[in-house]
Amino acid sequence: MADSRPLSPHLSIWKWRVHMATSIFHRVSGNALAFAGLTLFAWWLAAAATSKEAYDSFAAVAGSPVGWIVWVGLSWTFFQHLMSGIRHLLMDSGWGYALGTSKMTATWVFAGAIALTAAFWAVFILFGPGLG
What we know:
This protein is mostly helical. It has helices at 10-13, 18-50, 52-62, 65-92, 99-127.
């Protein structure tokens, strides 16, 4: 009996498009910011409130090469979610539903997130606190 039930054809007929990827990345980035961002923020607060040794441990991990990869990834996730949220806000106002406009703004989300991430880290490295 289970073999006679029809299957949803969505996986066989839908093709990946940039606006679909933008929507999926918006959801994933929101969850990543909530989980990873809040976890790191809580760790930082707990380390700062506990002792110098605890804070030094946090700083050592945060300043390691893996820590830098996490920070850059988290900042890209933030800007991806921000740009996608702006796109959704514009679409909620009724603008941007035409197929060409939707594809264009979805592409801008990815390009804008990369550009903002690069600009953020360039400013941080040039004008931010010491890296050592």
